[in-house]
Write a structure and sequence with these properties.
The complex is a heterodimer. By secondary structure, chain A is mostly helical. Chain A has helices spanning about 5-15, 40-60, 60-65, 70-80, 85-95, 135-145, 175-180, and strands spanning about 110-115, 160, 185-195. A 6-stranded antiparallel beta sheet of chain B has the order 1-2-3-4-6-5. The two termini of chain B are about 25 Å apart. Classes of the chains: A mainly alpha, B alpha+beta.
Chain lengths: ~200, ~220
């Protein structure tokens, strides 16, 4: 899949010990189910397309459109060559918001569950409520994926995981978006069954 | 969730409903599909086209050297180098599927499409490219953000080709502003699809436009 590897691990193998052993197939490519990856350029195009979409949500595309092509290139090269400073020199601009606001316009997120038919849930969700209160991760889940969150005094059925950790549901979503987004500027959230051990 | 915008999801669904109403009147084949347990949905249409094909079979060894050729294809090639022939496979029926979904990120409709042979084998982008009229090809190559890319269908999860939506707002805004100025109602979906559809072989009969201006 063209999903970030960390997301795939959280979603499919989080109980596995590292290193994660995977099987690579060279025959019978499932044309109907998976995207082809013909070249590095295709990965760059896919990555930039995600970054653009995230900025459409955060800033109505204003920040990404004001950047020059060379800035887009620097973002990609920084990621490709594992150069933190090179990447963040550009990415920090995508994490800013106007002084008069308390956060982004909408939060770029996708919620994945292996038990559902659709590949992910993505909806419009504001980081700040009308009264100025910051929305939390728990608020997001209650709104877009209520089945994932256990009732008040019920048993916890699921783990809500980002980058292999379970952030507290009280964490402000704006903070998560600024600090725990993937390089494509999306929060990729996995909902997995609570392990029984 | 929020609809402070110009073209929100409810407006999208309303325009699609009007569009489909006309489609049903003229037998144009568009349908609405809803997602189970949700108010979300999308428009879709399937059509079949006969395409006559000429195939050149590859000469044995030289094609195997290409690094981009998938291994299973290389193994299927004839081992006999002298077997370079031109064969006409005759007519092939191609199934085209077009889906119109709403993008909440860009707050515009997006066109997803795919093509396959009747046995289910999907067509590659280069084969679909051949079906696109010359005049659109140049435009697509010049403006990469109008380009066609392969992406995961957000509801079905399968690979579809997509016309990138980030410029939709740019070309639709003047259309809508103008229609307000001359006080004539316009169906966003009809106008939008009449622009992007032909690029990928989807044509709209003119009666859609007449129907749109008659509404309300």
């Amino acid at each position: 899949m063209h999903y970030p590897i960390g997301l795939l691990f959280d979603l499919l193998a989080s109980s596995s010990a590292l290193p994660w052993n995977i099987t690579v197939h060279f025959k019978s490519f499932p044309e109907k189910d998976l995207l082809h990856c013909p070249s590095k350029d295709a990965i760059e195009a896919h990555f930039m397309s995600c970054v653009k979409e995230a900025d459409a949500l955060k800033h109505k595309s204003q920040v990404i459109n004001e950047m020059q092509k060379k800035d887009h290139k620097q973002l990609w090269m920084g990621l490709q060559n594992d150069r933190f400073d090179q990447f963040w020199a550009i990415n920090r601009k995508l994490m800013e918001y106007p002084a008069e606001e308390n956060g982004f316009r909408y939060i770029p997120f996708r919620i994945y569950q292996t038990t559902t038919e659709r590949p992910f849930i993505q909806k419009l969700f504001r980081p700040v409520a009308a009264d100025g209160q910051l929305h939390t991760l728990g608020d997001l889940l209650k709104d877009v994926c209520p089945s994932a969150v256990a009732p008040e005094d019920g048993e916890k059925k699921n783990q809500v995981m980002i980058h292999g950790i379970e952030p507290m549901l009280e964490t402000p979503l704006q903070w998560l978006s600024e600090h725990l987004s993937y390089p494509d500027n999306f929060l990729h959230i996995s909902i997995i069954p609570q392990p029984t051990d | 969730m929020e609809e402070d915008e110009f073209f929100g999801e409810k407006t999208f669904q309303h325009c699609c409903a009007e569009f489909i109403r006309h489609s049903q009147q003229i037998g144009d084949g568009w349908e609405w599909r809803t997602l189970k347990d949700s108010s979300e949905g999308y428009m879709c249409k399937t059509h079949f086209q006969i395409k006559s094909e000429t195939l050149m079979s590859h000469s044995g060894t030289s094609a195997c050297v290409q690094t981009c050729l998938p291994i299973e294809e290389a193994l299927e090639l004839p081992l006999d180098d002298s077997e370079v022939t031109e064969t006409t496979t005759g007519s092939q029926v191609i199934k085209y599927e077009y889906h119109v979904l709403y993008s909440c990120s860009y707050q515009v409709p997006v066109l997803y499409f795919r093509a396959s042979f009747l046995d289910g084998r999907p067509l590659a982008l280069k084969d679909i490219w051949e079906g696109i009229h010359e005049c659109y090809k140049t435009r697509l190559l010049q403006e990469p953000w109008d380009a066609i890319t392969q992406q995961e269908h957000p509801i079905l999860g399968q690979p579809f080709f997509v016309l990138h939506p980030c410029k939709t707002d740019e070309f639709m805004t003047p259309v809508l502003k103008n229609s307000q100025k001359i006080n004539r109602s316009v169906n966003y979906i009809t106008s939008w699809l009449s622009v992007v559809g032909p690029v990928v072989g989807l044509n709209l009969p003119l009666s859609y436009a007449r129907a749109a201006s008659e509404d309300e």
